[in-house]
């Protein structure tokens, strides 16, 4: 594997790290905001659990974001992963 | 930001480049693309290398090791395919049809001030007069250069 190939793999790794960090940031904001909403619900009489609506709706977004981060790969990443396997097999 | 390359176009452009400039290594292909597209797309190894791998798998290009550096050139199939490709010219016409935005005098002066290594030097009265005199000369040069072409401040 030459320097150009190694640079391509480093770039791919960097992109994946950024993707994961962006997802973790999203997850953190989701958790903090919804914890705050639950707290507001609790101190305002904790009757009808209205916090479930934003929690439920936003969860769909978080799950979709997680899927695109960890399950769905760019076609370029698929090609590079295959090449990495080939290089390791040699 | 609009995409410069549609699906499959990058590979066609690489074939177009290797038609005339082979053999080339990955960095040379990157540089050639950056020059031809005049900065409208900054290629990176992460974009070019998978395209090269795809072309190699399809037996359109072949690579040879040259002292630890891979050089790429068209394979037999690639030579046939490349004959009918003029993709690079088509991309250039598409991406370069908009004239690049012209910077203003103000923007050039702001950049000069931001990057000037002496910008934080404190001046005594004598030095202050020298700097003001230099700026006045510059201002007079602008008058000579641009005449009455003065726009009102926005």
The total number of structural domains of chain B is: 2
Q: In CATH terms, what is the architecture of the largest domain in chain B? A: Orthogonal Bundle
Order of helices and strands of chain B: HEHHEEHHHH
What percent of the residues of chain B sit in helical stretches (DSSP H or I)?
A: 55-70%
Radius of gyration of chain A: 20 Å
Strand order of the largest sheet of chain B: 1-3-2
Helix/strand-derived class of chain B? mainly alpha
Strand content of chain A: under 5%
**How many helices of chain A does DSSP assign?**
3
CATH superfamily of the largest domain in chain B: Winged helix-like DNA-binding domain superfamily/Winged helix DNA-binding domain
Give the helix level of chain A as a range of percent.
over 70%
Give the class-level CATH name of the largest domain in chain B: Mainly Alpha
Structure explained in plain terms:
- The complex is a heterodimer of chains A (about 90) and B (about 150).
- With about 90 residues, chain A is mainly alpha-helical.
- In chain A, about 85% of the residues lie in helices and about 0% in strands.
- Chain A is built from three helices and no strands.
- The model of chain A has no long low-confidence stretch (mean pLDDT about 90).
- Chain B is built from seven helices and three strands.
- The relative contact order of chain B is 0.12.
- The mean pLDDT of chain B is about 80.
- Chain B folds into two domains: about 90 residues, Arc Repressor Mutant, subunit A; about 40 residues.
- Chain B has a three-stranded antiparallel beta sheet with strand order 1-3-2.
- Chain B is mainly alpha-helical and about 150 residues long.
- Chains A and B meet through helix 1 and helix 3 of A and helix 3 of B.
């Amino acid at each position: 594997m030459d320097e150009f190939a190694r640079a391509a793999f480093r770039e791919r790794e960097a992109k994946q790290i950024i993707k994961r960090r962006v997802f973790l940031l999203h997850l953190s904001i989701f958790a903090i905001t919804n914890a705050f909403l639950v707290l507001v619900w609790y101190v305002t009489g904790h009757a009808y659990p209205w916090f479930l609506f934003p929690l439920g709706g936003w969860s769909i977004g978080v799950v979709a974001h997680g899927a695109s981060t960890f399950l769905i790969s760019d076609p370029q990443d698929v090609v590079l992963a295959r090449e990495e396997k080939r290089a390791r097999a040699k | 930001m609009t995409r410069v390359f549609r699906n499959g176009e990058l590979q066609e452009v690489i074939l177009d480049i290797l038609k005339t400039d082979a053999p080339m290594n990955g960095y040379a292909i990157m540089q050639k693309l950056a020059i031809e597209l005049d900065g409208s797309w900054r290629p990176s190894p992460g974009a070019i290398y998978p395209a090269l791998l795809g072309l190699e798998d399809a037996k359109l290009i072949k690579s040879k090791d040259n002292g630890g550096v891979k050089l790429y050139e068209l394979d037999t199939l690639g030579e046939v395919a490349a004959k009918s490709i003029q993709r690079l010219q088509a991309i250039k016409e598409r991406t370069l049809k908009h004239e690049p935005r012209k910077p203003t005098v103000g923007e050039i002066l702001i950049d000069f001030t931001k990057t000037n290594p002496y910008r934080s030097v404190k001046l005594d009265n004598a030095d202050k007069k020298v700097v003001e005199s230099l700026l006045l000369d510059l201002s007079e040069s602008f008058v000579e250069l641009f005449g009455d072409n003065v726009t009102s401040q926005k």
